[in-house]
Design goal:
With about 400 residues, this protein is mainly β. The chain contains four helices and 19 strands. The chain has a 16-stranded antiparallel beta barrel with strand order 2-3-4-5-6-7-8-10-11-13-14-15-16-17-18-19. The chain starts with a helix and ends with a strand.
């Protein structure tokens, strides 16, 4: 059955959601207390079909509906320099996330310094991790450049490790004629209390637990010409320890992940060009002879262009590449040591997408991916690595609503 027929069978579901969203389109954000309290929300449903392999559920030669996002966020300005903000999120993504409601972020933001030329403050609580251009707003479909972010930088399979952390963040912003400078430093506990993070690192059916040391996160961005161009750097470090469970074949091992991300973006009137490059050093040690221990210097990058065809239409083209080990790009040495296919260590993804803003509150998106490699696929959706196929296509349709 062709892919168009599969999506046609799911069209009534998308149409029903679209009608509901259009009916609710006049709804705006809820502002109370003279605008000091604001409530926003969003919801999206994405249909996924792949020619081989599974992505966000069982999508191989079928249309899968296991990628949904529903969120509600609120902010309350207590005083001119103190604000509370929080978001409840349900994120369902195949085997990596079951959609249970959790606190995506919840913090108090104190800005003791706020002047015309800049401001500075501190955030305490569950804070969003500053990671590249898009991580802080990655959960809201309207703020993403595409249905899924470039997987070379923003992995979905380990999303919870980098999306937010419990701790503190100090930030400062400086505005001037030469441009604006934004800097932040955070120190917090990454979220390791879900199986998704553990499975992505040590595999399925492991009885042990994953824990993390406090993780530092530094980000600096410069904006020039009123946001026409942006240049940034992000540096973070994750120190994760695996505690074996009863009958575990693995020993008490350790992961050290130290990504460094360089970001650049140029925004013209009708088009944007964006690129990010990541140096990612990964150290795996002390797991014993039943695990692949070693050190790898990974590389990731993407080049993305978007063009506004009309006021409500936007097209996107992107090339996205990920290599787990820059000195073993094709994975041959890894395959010889483990018996696992070498193409699980890289992924090269050509993406073309189209966005249509039906109303300011309702958006439709279509996206096609042509992928070489399976480096960013989740083992929960693909438990048999020998059944994976190196070359595969991914087709996605998304309907999103916000208020």
């Amino acid at each position: 059955m062709c892919v168009y027929s599969r999506f046609a069978r799911a069209a009534p579901c998308m149409a029903l959601i679209g009608l509901c969203m259009l009916w609710a389109a006049p709804v705006r954000s809820l502002d109370l207390m003279g605008g000091d309290f604001r409530l926003h929300g969003f919801a999206s449903l994405t249909l996924v079909n792949t020619t081989d392999n599974n992505f966000f559920g069982y999508s191989d030669d079928r249309v899968d509906r296991n990628f949904t996002e529903v969120g509600m966020n609120a902010s309350w300005r207590l005083t001119s320099d103190v604000q509370l903000a929080a978001e409840l999120l349900s994120h369902r993504a195949g085997g990596t996330d079951d959609g249970r409601v959790r606190v995506d972020y919840g913090l108090i933001d104190w800005t003791p310094l706020s002047r015309e030329e800049g401001r500075a403050g501190i955030r305490l609580g569950r804070i969003k991790t500053a990671y590249g251009l898009y991580n802080k707003t990655r959960d809201v479909p309207f703020t993403r450049p595409s249905i899924i972010l470039p997987q070379s930088i923003y992995f979905e399979r380990t999303r919870n490790l980098t999306v937010s952390a419990d701790g503190a963040e100090i930030y400062a912003e400086r505005y001037g004629d030469a441009g604006s400078l934004f800097a932040s430093f955070a120190y917090g506990q990454p979220q390791t209390d879900t199986d998704a993070a553990k499975v992505a690192l040590v595999g399925l059916h492991r009885p042990g637990n994953l824990d993390s040391s406090l993780a530092p996160d530094l980000q600096v961005f410069y904006e020039g010409s009123g946001g026409m161009y942006r240049l940034g750097l992000t540096a973070t470090r994750l120190d994760l320890r695996y505690k074996p469970g009863f009958g575990d074949r693995l020993q008490a091992g350790r992961f050290k992940l130290t990504p460094l991300i360089l970001s650049a973006q140029f925004n013209a009137e009708n088009w944007s060009l964006t690129s990010e490059y990541a140096f990612r050093r990964t150290s795996v040690s002390d797991f014993g002879r039943f695990f692949y221990n070693g050190t790898a210097d990974g590389r990731s990058y993407y080049l993305q262009g978007s063009y506004r065809l009309a006021p409500r239409w936007e097209a996107l083209l992107r090339y996205d590449a990920y290599y787990a080990d820059n000195h073993d790009r094709d994975g041959k040495r890894f395959a010889a040591a483990t018996g696992i296919p070498g193409f699980t260590r890289f992924a090269k993804d050509w993406t073309a997408g189209l966005r249509f803003d039906v109303t300011p509150q309702f958006m439709l998106r279509a996206e096609v991916h042509r992928v070489d490699g399976t480096g960013f696929l989740a083992v929960q959706d693909n438990p048999d690595t020998q059944a994976l196929r190196r070359y595969w296509d991914n087709f996605m349709l998304q309907a999103s609503f916000r208020f």
